[in-house]
Design goal:
Shape: elongated
Number of helices: 5
Strand content: 15-25%
Radius of gyration: 31 Å
Number of domains: 2
Strand order of the largest sheet: 3-4-2-6
Structural class: alpha+beta
Largest sheet: 4 strands, antiparallel
C-alpha cells in the first residue's frame, strides 16, 4: 500500500479491513501479541482490538455477516460480492487499537486495504436547548437559613407528633 492511512487522535468506531497476501505462517505470526505493531512499525496497539484470522474460520457467516452482524457495520456500507470473494487471511483493526493516539499507518507489501467502515453507535450530538429553564442557575434558589430552619422545625414537630400518636395507639391496642 503506497498511501499512508492517517488515524486521527481520539478516532472512534472505525474499522479497517485488510486482506493479507502472505504465507499462512506469516499471517499466523501476526496473531502474536505485539506482532502487528512490530510489522507495521507503529506504536504499540491494543491487541484486543486487532483481529487476524483466516476467512474460513467464519464458515457460513462469511466476512459480510461478520462485519454486519458481529461488528455492527451497516450493511449498506458493505459490498457483499467483494467480501465473499476474499479468501485466505484478513486483518481487522478497530480505532480503539490505537488507544486514542494519532498515527500514520503505511502497511507494506502483503497488506491490501479492502475497506474502511464505520461501526454503528450512539449519536451523542444534539442541538442546544433554548428554553429558559435550561439556563444555568434558573432553578428556584434554596430557602434562606431562617426560613429553612423554620421548615425543618415544623417537619420535626410533625414527625414527633405522629410518632407520639402512633405510640399511644399501639399502647392502647396492646393493653
Amino acid at each position: 500500500m503506497s498511501n499512508p492511512l492517517h488515524i486521527r487522535k481520539g478516532e472512534q468506531r472505525i474499522l479497517r479491513l485488510f486482506a493479507l497476501d502472505m504465507h499462512p505462517e506469516q499471517a499466523r505470526f501476526l496473531q502474536e501479541p505485539g506482532a502487528v505493531a512490530q510489522v507495521l512499525k507503529i506504536a504499540p496497539l491494543d491487541d484486543e482490538q486487532v483481529k487476524v484470522f483466516p476467512v474460513t474460520d467464519l464458515e457460513d457467516l462469511g466476512l459480510f455477516g461478520y462485519l454486519s452482524e458481529g461488528c455492527g457495520v451497516d450493511p449498506a456500507q458493505l459490498d457483499k460480492l467483494a467480501l465473499d470473494a476474499i479468501k485466505g487471511w484478513v486483518l481487522l483493526m478497530r480505532s480503539k487499537a490505537f488507544c486514542g493516539n494519532e498515527a500514520e499507518l503505511a502497511p507494506g507489501d502483503g497488506f491490501n486495504l479492502i475497506g474502511i467502515y464505520t461501526e454503528d453507535g450512539t449519536d451523542w450530538s444534539a442541538e442546544p436547548i433554548q428554553t429558559s429553564s435550561a439556563a444555568p442557575y434558573s432553578a428556584k434558589q434554596p430557602a434562606g437559613t431562617a426560613e429553612g430552619r423554620r421548615t425543618r422545625q415544623l417537619a420535626l414537630t410533625i414527625l414527633v407528633g405522629l410518632s407520639l400518636v402512633i405510640t399511644l395507639v399501639l399502647l392502647k391496642v396492646l393493653l
